[in-house]
Design a protein that fits this description.
Keywords: Isomerase, RNA-binding. GO terms for molecular function: RNA binding; rRNA pseudouridine synthase activity. It catalyses: a uridine in RNA = a pseudouridine in RNA. Its EC number is 5.4.99.-. 17% of the residues lie in helices and 30% in strands. A hairpin with a 2-residue loop joins strand 5 and strand 6. The protein is built from 6 helices and 17 strands. It has 2 domains: 53 residues, RNA-binding S4 domain (Structural Genomics Hypothetical 15.5 Kd Protein In mrcA-pckA Intergenic Region, Chain A), CATH 3.10.290.10; 164 residues, 2-Layer Sandwich (Pseudouridine synthase). It is α+β, with helices and mostly antiparallel strands. The strands form 4 sheets. Strands 7, 8, 9, 10, 13, 14, 15, 16 and 17 form a 9-stranded mixed beta sheet that branches. A 4-stranded antiparallel beta sheet has the order 3-2-5-6. The chain has a two-stranded antiparallel sheet with strand order 1-4. The longest helix is centred in the N-terminal third of the chain and has 9 residues.
């Protein structure tokens, strides 16, 4: 393809979607890697080379990467996934451990996770093909509650857990308010329901360890309005576009063929 001046007045995309976001939704690369492809001059729109990530793509444009025509992205989709213990939430693991994405059906489009669950945690993980939707669902400003069932070992009293309602600082890291209730207790073992809005890395485990409690099972049962319910382990259930719109207010764009 011939190179053209990216600042040419003929190259005007005043409406549509930013190219890096478009490429990420199309499954070409992550948004950051897509921006790199653009800066390297490997992306063309309607046979015109672009080098600016701020360039927009409309429904009538053809996009090429390294000379290959890229299929138009699907509309935004969201799935509930019941993550089992033993999978990590990453696309590539340098240690070669099995990942959530390795376990998905082969006909799944490229998806990313909404937040994470660590190797030894299980339960509800939301997956989407839309990076902007993932970021929207992760925003603390949504005030969406993440709810967990947590089994702990150690001496525990409700009064101590109630201290978490005002937040807590552990090893220099401040955690926002956490609601923890004892559901059942037998000897040194107890099941808790733990609710929080922030969901920092290993937050529950670190906070419980601060109280000399060892977490030996952690199951996420809800993420905002989305529930794990009776979804079997390692199973997927797609959320309808209607529900996505109702719960997020997000406009779900149609693909070119829909």
């Amino acid at each position: 393809m011939p190179k053209t001046d990216p600042d040419s007045p003929n190259l005007s995309f005043s409406k549509g979607e930013r190219i890096a976001k478009w490429l990420a939704r199309a499954g070409v690369a992550s948004r950051r890697d897509a921006e790199k492809l653009v800066s390297e001059g490997k992306v063309f729109i309607n046979q015109q080379q672009i080098t600016q990530p701020a360039t927009f793509v409309s429904n009538n444009d053809n996009v090429y990467v390294n000379g290959k025509l890229i299929a138009y992205p699907e509309h935004s989709r969201l799935w509930r996934y019941h993550k089992p213990v033993g999978l990590i939430t990453t696309h590539k693991d340098p240690e070669g451990r099995p990942t959530v994405f390795d376990a998905l059906p082969p006909n799944m489009p490229r998806v990313i996770s909404v937040g994470r669950l660590d190797l030894n945690s299980e339960g509800l993980l939301l997956l989407t093909n839309d990076g902007s939707l993932a970021r929207q669902l992760e925003l603390p400003s949504n005030h969406w509650v993440r709810r967990y069932r947590v089994r702990v070992f150690g001496h525990i009293v409700q009064a101590k857990l109630d201290q978490l309602k005002d937040g807590i600082t552990v090893e220099g890291i401040h955690y926002s308010p956490i609601i923890a209730k004892i559901d059942s207790q037998k000897g040194m073992n107890a099941w808790l329901t733990v609710s929080l809005q922030e969901g920092r890395n290993r937050e529950i485990r670190r906070v419980m360890q601060h109280f000399d409690l060892q977490v030996n099972r952690l199951i996420r049962i809800a993420y905002g309005p989305f529930q794990l319910g009776s979804l079997p382990k390692n199973s997927l259930d797609e959320v309808s576009g209607k529900v996505i719109r109702e719960q997020t207010g997000k406009h779900i764009p149609l693909s070119r063929n829909k």
